[in-house]
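Fig. S4 source data, part A: sequence.
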Amino acid sequence: MENALLIGLSRQMSLRREMEVVANNIANINTTGFKADTAIFEEYLMPGARADQAARPDQRLSYVVDRSTWHDMGQGPVHQTGNPLDVAINGNAFLVVQTPRGERYTRNGSLHINAQGQLVTTEGFPVVGESGPIQFQTNDREITIGRDGSIGVPGGSRGKLRLVTFEAAQRLQKDGGSTFLAPEGLEPQQATPEAAQVIQFSLEQSNVRGVVAMTRMIEVARSYTQVSTMLQQQGDMRRGALEKLAEVPA
């Protein structure tokens, strides 16, 4: 009976964690360049006690363990905006931005020019080009961004977007709504034209599938309720057993 309570509690803890992940996905369904997360769990077989005098061997108990979170790096739908500074990346690559904490990587191509003439993200982080930050002049108009990331104006070139890829993109760690940081040992590599192309006047939307996420949230809530009901029944059975044992024979 104690084992059932412990196993049920481990399941409830995992369901609570999954609910947090699903809720965060739904909350970012309209975040440009957001990548959905999926909770990963595994079965943990608790080794049973061993005794030569036991009439029958002990059964191994199966618990639920919260192992990690998996990033869905699949590309989200591309939406045309008509803004010349909006870019989407077709392929497995990231823009490089400079933050106070160091370089970060993002698929959020909603860009604009700040008061200093630098190309920055919506958070105000400068976008890193192949030759450093991208700088515009006050009279620049009719900005064009090629499929290779080259930025031009009628008066000349303003640089080229730096696009990078990773051999193990799953190792990237989220650092904000749509930015990632590379852990130690994971180095960015220059993206080839075949691996990634820039699409101007467009933005990549979140890859969260709203209907699937809402359905999963309902399933998790129902599973949590079922486990709660089971634990309540186990508690009632234990209470009834104790009451029977406590009865004094007439």
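Fig. S4 source data, part B ends here. Residues 2-50+58-72+208-239 form one domain.
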